[in-house]
């Protein structure tokens, strides 16, 4: 498996190369990149709409300012994405992919479990589940899972990630050589 066979190289190098060897490759290439465009746009709609809608439901006075919130959210998203278009963006992309889509999701999951189980309260949560399902859920199973098993497993995963942390290296591909990221990037991540 080559370096282009994973990550963004899979979509922008490997698949187009494979499509170029098919019959009617022009049609399939156009369809493939239209599909990528549709996936990107639909993801952006979700990433834009979810925080705005949740704020509008939480604060009813916010609903009248929704158009401004959409413009602000899109502007901030645009400004945050600009560094990913500059020279050397692959290094920033690797850092973002490694830390935003890896350890931080586990940490967020731990705090969600902790918030529901210990701050909101398991009994409140079970009452909400009973109201939504109109029947009693497996209370003992969920109690053991939310209070004991999930927090312990998440702490173990986070600890193993932090113990095994070492300076990140990108994989050499195309015109990019292997690069070891500085220690500050690991600390920041």
Topology at a glance:
Elements: H1 8-20, H2 25-58, H3 66-81, H4 89-133, H5 139-163, H6 183-188
Radius of gyration: 22 Å
- The strand count comes to 0
How would you describe the oligomerization state of the chains in this entry?
single chain
Q: Strand pairing plus helix content: what structural class?
A: mainly alpha
* Main pleated sheet: none
Beta content comes to: under 5%
List low-pLDDT spans: none
Mean pLDDT: 82
Helix segment count? 6
H/E order of the elements?
HHHHHH
Distance between the termini: 28 Å
Specify the helix fraction band: over 70%
Principal-axes shape call: extended
Task: Tell me about this structure.
This protein has 189 residues and is mainly α. It has a domain at 88-189. It is built from six helices and no strands.
